Amino acid sequence: MDDFDNDAIRDIVVQCAAKSAKTPTVVNSASWAIAEKPGPAMWVTAARDELRNFRRDRRTPTFEDVPHSGSRLWSFRRGHTFSNT
Questions:
Q1: What contacts 55, CB < 8 A, 6 or more positions away?
Q2: Less CB within 10 Å around the terminal CB: N or C of the chain?
Q3: What angle do CA 85, 29, 1 make, to 5 degrees?
Q4: Is it the case that residue 63 has pLDDT exceeding 60?
Q5: d(CA 59, CA 23)
Q6: Cα(57)–Cα(63) distance, rounded to whole angstroms?
Q7: HSE on the CB side for 36, CA within 13 Å?
Q8: CA torsion, points 18, 21, 26, 31, in degrees to nearest 10?
């Protein structure tokens, strides 16, 4: 998690065993980054349905609960259109 605060690191890849709390760790780290050091990010999933469920059930509620991260994310999205292609 320290790497999220290191400006010299541009890419972070997480690879670990199943059921090892990697998703909550990365979501919480992303929430911190949005609130404290906003910048580009990408979340990759195996399938579109998986992404929709993750976004609805895990990511969005977490981002909305963290002070400043939800408001920064949503104000950014209001001005942009995203493609699902």
A1: none
A2: C
A3: 125
A4: yes
A5: 9
A6: 11
A7: 11
A8: 150
Q: Which residues of 1-15 are buried (b: 16+ CB within 10 A; e: fewer)?
A: eeeeeeeeeeeeeee
**The residue to which tokens 């992303």 are assigned:** 30
Return the axis-axis angle of helices 69-78 and 22-36, rounded to nearest 10°. Answer: 70
Token pair belonging to 77: 């999205």
pLDDT tens, position by position, 24-47: 888 888 888 877 887 777 878 888
CB 9 within 8 A of CB 3: yes
